[in-house]
Amino acid sequence: MSDLSMLALIGVLSISCQWLAWRIKLPAILPLLICGLLLGPTLGLLEPDSLFEDLLFPFVSLAVAVILFEGSLTLKFEEIRGHGRMVTNLVSIGMLVTFVVIAILTHFIMGYGWEISALFGALVVVTGPTVIQPMIRSIRPINKLANILRWEGIIIDPLGALLAVLVYEFIIASQDVAFLHALQAFATTIALGFALGWGAARLLGLALGRGWFPHYLQNVATLTIVLGVFALSNAIQHESGLLTVTVMGMVMANTRNLNMEEILEFKETLSVLLISALFIILAARLDFAEFDALGMPAVILIAIILFAVRPLAVWLSAIGTELRFKDKVLLSWIAPRGIVAAAVSALFALKMEESGWTEAAAVVPLVFLVIMTTVVLQSLTAKPLARMLGLLEPQAKGFLIFGANQMARAVAKSIQESGIPVRLADTNWENIKLARMDNLPVYFGNPASEHAANNIDLTGLGQLLVMSPYKQLNPLVSMYYQDWFGSRKVHGLNGGEQDYRASHQLTESYRKTLNLFGDSVTYSKLASLHFKGAKIKSTPITDSFSFADYQQKYGTRALPMFALDDAEKLHIFTTERELIPQSGWTVIAMISAEPEENDVEQDNAERKE
Q: At a CB cut-off of 8 Å and minimum separation 6, what does 542 contact?
């Protein structure tokens, strides 16, 4: 097979693995690693060193730089403070305990030097959102624990990367020099990384904020500048570039009034492509003999990491919190390693092997072994453990609403007042701001994006209502959540989409979702009713006041939307089935304002004519 064909095959397999992971709701790292191991050591079809030759090292270096920059863009310091003591402790006390204990264990169990042991300890402190989010969605633990695990993964991703880079920089600085000179070189690297990273972030933020780049060039300019700063930092101080771009991303993430949403989405897309290809290439470089060479000491080390180190970090982090014993047990078991550990370990190993560190070659298979063990074992056992502990989320009764406009907010408030969880998603910041003022949970952005996949909180939510005017996004969001919630749990407004559906030949599965509140109910109709003073009202149905009585009283003034049964389950009025609320239920409907007397006379006159 030619080199060009092999590169095309890597691209096709990368996307195929991502698609498979999405379908089976598992971390994408698993199919990517399996694919790489099949192509490389198993079948011998892919030999990255001969395929890329001298370009392998630069490709991996630049890819890791982009991955670290993109990851650090998600770290907002206010989020560390805003998610409780347990999350703060896990990404500080827990991370440091994990790092120190694993480094000591690696030194004595594996027999590695302190430098390599410390590097391995730093590499495996990170869980990361790309592996933890699919696992949380599959397990569905109670809301409190799901939030802790999700935010730990999001925040520790860039912090763990920064720790690994700092440890690596110190090891490189201390090679074959006196300790004092090592400290000086390390201090120079730290100073340059933070100074250049901060300066580049401020300059780029100023350029973006003042519109120095046209809109269509912002993403490409950002990528180019990041790679240029990475190369410049390395040219000034050997191996300081990774620290510089990590600091650069963190500074930009915490710069006020800097809108990074589009850039972050572009970087996420690029990172998915780079990570997918990188994992296949790195896994193909492995040799099964390297795993055999690790032997029983590696098995013992990984067992201690799973059953002792993580619980120790969780229990120490939980001091002073209100977590119960069983909460800490589940948190102790869920800590899969992922993206940062694999990508950064491979890069560092390549660099250190070139510098004469022979032990560095063993770091990559050991890290990959930790990744495979934690992801596979915890994916298979975490849900049964959560069920045994009674920590599974009850049946998801809540609603994700796409659209945070005035009408959607009114609907969301009526659902929330019924005791049903709700979350609004919108790409319009003003709508999101007004929803927050109404104390409604929100997500700002496209709920079908990669960022949403890692960040949106769907705990307790099991259905989607599409109530936005965005005709381009509505089909995308609907079809995205059909695969997550199920096709019968996604509902959108009908009528207003007719021309759009005809011109775009949308799928039959999407057409079936356009059944919300009735065939003639469109976004425009609801917005018009709400503008004219229609109110959403909850009315109990009793033995003496049946649903037929309700319909007779309100007639065409009532547009029934939901019915809350006596088991506190919310049913939706759709065109799919006839819904007849029973005694003990509550009907939630949009009630039009009483027509004034002259309006009634005019309507009667028009009918007579």
A: 583, 584
